[in-house]
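> tool_call: predict_assembly(chains=two)
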Amino acid sequence: MKIVVLLSAGSHPASGRPCRADQDARALQLALQLAPGLEGSVIGLHAGRADQPALQDYLGQGCEDLRLVPLECGHDMTAALAHALTEIRPDLILTGMAAERGEGSGMLPYLLADMLGASILPGIAEISGLKDDRVTARQALPGGQRREIAAPCPAVLTIAGNAPDPAPIVHRRAIQGQVTELPAPARTEPGHDQGWNYRPAAKRPKRLASGGKKAGGLGAIMSGGAAGGGTVMDRHSAEEIARALLDRLQSLNVVTSVSREK
Amino acid sequence: MTGPALRRDPRTERDLRRNWRDAIAAAVGYTLRKNPRADRDARRNRIEPRLTPLTTAISAGRATPAAEKPVDLPLAVVSAPTGWIIAVPDLAGGAYTAHDRDVLGAARALADVMGAGVVTVEFADDVPGADLAGADRRIAIDGGGDAYDPERRVAMLESLMTEHQPLHILLPDTAVGGGDLGRRLAARTGESLAANCWRVGDRGVIRRAAQGRADVSHDLSRILLILPEGAEPVTGVRHAAEPLDPPTVQTNPAIDDLGRVAMDAGDIPLAEAEFILSAGNGVQDWPLYHRLALALNAVEGGSRVAVDDGFLPRARQVGASGTLVRARAYLALGISGAPQHLQGITDCENVLTVNLDPACPMIKRADLAGIGDTGQVMQAMLELLENGEGSA
């Protein structure tokens, strides 16, 4: 039973230096936790240069079998990775949801799934199990909810940031680990984002919450605090405060029903 | 204001005149730029800004009398569209969310420039609001409820693509909703895709790249995934939203949806929680707090003081060195509101609080604050919940 984790170079949020990518590291962690129980092996796969500093982080996290597909900077990696994956024939392929460098469109897992004829399960927070060639996983939904989905193997799972935290990096493993270099792909082409101008993210204008509902600009104040921005209830009894709080929670749909008696 | 004499409150008016900047900011929605010299001169010459209509209205405490008349919106009809633009809203919760309306707004903007029409594809039965959102045509496909069914939906979208030959297909960029469908469609059909778009125009798109670290702009792709607030929604006009026949496709989906996992409030991680009941130094009766959290089905959280004293585990700490929370409702009991704690709740939408001290920073931050004893309020809330028709 083989689990391949696609590992990319991440970008540190503060310094921008190459380090392990957050979602890829969580994917690796899920694989390392899952493999022993299923008597499987975890293979890390990276497409790029052998001197990539981020690879040391993955070795330090515990990836023992890290393989490299040599690829020129900026070239398209889809075909090269698909070729390497068809040679390895894994049961599961784990990836992050999008790259932290470059375009980061999140298309790679979908393209690979299509090329390999595998199912793809996006946004996974937890892998429940793998039995009889069928993988069951928990998908992360908004508001902390989870949904259980299953697909036949081979399957591509994209791991969301809701997955458990990755293990810390052990320095000894990082410097003693070895990266296996696979044969270079025959022909690669520059990525379709050649010549695109990437610039640091600009601050997006925030939309005013008030929208179009004000009566001539004074509506927010004219409603006399009934809309409730910044209301303070002083010199009220505990019951009145409790009722006001529960009414507000009910209007926000977090509490379903409260006693109307009293 | 005409009508009977309004009773004015001189104290409220005096506060408003003194805090006139805040009053105007609340009215217009943005803060006026400060002019230190003008403020200094006004203070020296003892000039107070006169805001008489504003202060009178507020001190009288009257709600605005302008009744909400149902406005008949004008109908905009696209007579001879040069092409079609397909928009696929998520319809989470069975209705057009703000994000869906933004996507329809982007589709409408592109369609108006290109002389095309907008078709909305709804994977749900009988959802209102397509005409107000800006759709000229509407295809309602039998939902299957909340189930995760991307392969069948992508097959339907593919069939619609061959039938209508749309100029563009727009979807909201959500991880398991429109973003998933759009990427599957792009992988299957080989069409170009632009993800994380936050500005869309006929000349091109501006996208977030590298998980929000960079921006890139290029020409319009065939499939566009729009971020929340990535376009203005359609307002003030109605569209036809004529129904069209849904496509029929046969699929054999490989992915099974085994249903939602019943999540207790205790299972939900603090960073993802929608409703947090947070306790601080002012809470004495901790068993009562836990019972209230259970009754409300709220996720438990706490300030640094509560965690340091051992009443809650470190994982439950809300704040700068704990967890940054983005809840829709945050109820803080007995938390004074240290700056680091307020940093943790900057992204919370509605903050409610109970505290004994009316001057603490949490009261200022809160949308609804009660001055009182947290123990008594907790007990009253528990009684109201237990006597109610149901629970949370």
